[in-house]
Amino acid sequence: MGKNQKIEMSKYILISGFNIHDNNRGTAALSYGSLFFLQEKSFLKKGQQLINYRYYKNPFKSHNRKNSEEYFQLGGDKYLHTVFNVLFVEKWLFDKLGIILPFTNFGQTIKQVELVAAINGGDGFSDIYDTQTFISRLFDIDLAIRLKLPLILLPQTIGPFESKNNSLIAERILRYASKIYIRDDKYIANLKDMGLSYEMTKDLSYYMQPQRWDIDVIDDSIGINISGLSYSNKFRTLSNQFEYYPLLIERLIFFFQEKGKHIYLIPHSYNYVEPELNNDDMVACREVYNNLKNKANVILIDKDLIAPQVKYIISRMSFFIGTRMHANFAAIYTGVPLFGLAYSYKFQGAFEANGIYGHIALINNITAFDIDNIIREVDRVYNDSMKK
């Protein structure tokens, strides 16, 4: 495992960012995949348990006092995942004074952690969304560094960093990490400049298998993932970059209707009960569907699906157009021809790492005049894929 490796196996593995119930089915897919990845790489061993910490402020709420437990079956082995609730005072004591109370769940379990493995949302080791998002995902990593626990950066896109300070924080973490896995080549030059070793591998979502569910998919259908982030055009530092995205989606639907195809509108990051403001794909998909003057052959996937079920519906498409990176990964890893509507360089790196070139269009700050060119590119890729 590299530096800081313990001689004896400890009881716990802390997967930072682990949440199979995340609104973003892509992030949830990373969590599912991380289990199989860590087991395959022999970091997760039989008899160990998975843990996370959840920090809360109100001790009078009963759900804050009860830890949550869930079992996962990996091959022939069963693993327990526990989320320990930690009062914010404990977090403050550790953050400010380095004090760990030995009689609490946190104090007793942190001493038995074998390693910290960080997901960071797959592309959250970056300030692309904003500095707050980057920093908010680093507490477990900081915990590992301060307590000298082994740290693994699970396969992800590193960078870009607009802020020099954020870049320095990232470098400190990268230099400490016992193992760095990457899913594309976008930061390799930087890692080489630092003299750091790394291993390129597939995205964690590759390791998550699709789960069949009760739906009859029409043959030769087109799947379109609509991003609530882009559709709202109000998401953090990416605000006001996607004015013509709704028109692009409408034109794409019409384009495939003209070809006589059935089109499935597939949300990939959403909360079915409490939508996330300016970032909910279901809200965007419903609005697109409701605004269509012609709904012929258009099917809205309006259902609260888990990540493996979303991967299944995408796997049944004959062609897929995705704006969420992990919606595209679901297509890539199930062999579905695709075209990516990209808002970050992570798309190009991820596509090319999987041998796919010329299948993306950047949608940041496009104008109405760019839409025709994008549709021509989609048509080219679609026609090429149908010939194979």
From TrEMBL:
Ribonucleoprotein keyword on record: no
Pfam families the UniProt entry points to: PS_pyruv_trans
Residue intervals of the Polysaccharide pyruvyl transferase domain: 70-345
Keyword Transferase: yes
Record GO terms (molecular function): transferase activity
Keywords, comma-separated and alphabetical: Transferase
PANTHER family per the UniProt record, alphabetical: COLANIC ACID BIOSYNTHESIS PROTEIN WCAK
Protein known as: Polysaccharide pyruvyl transferase family protein
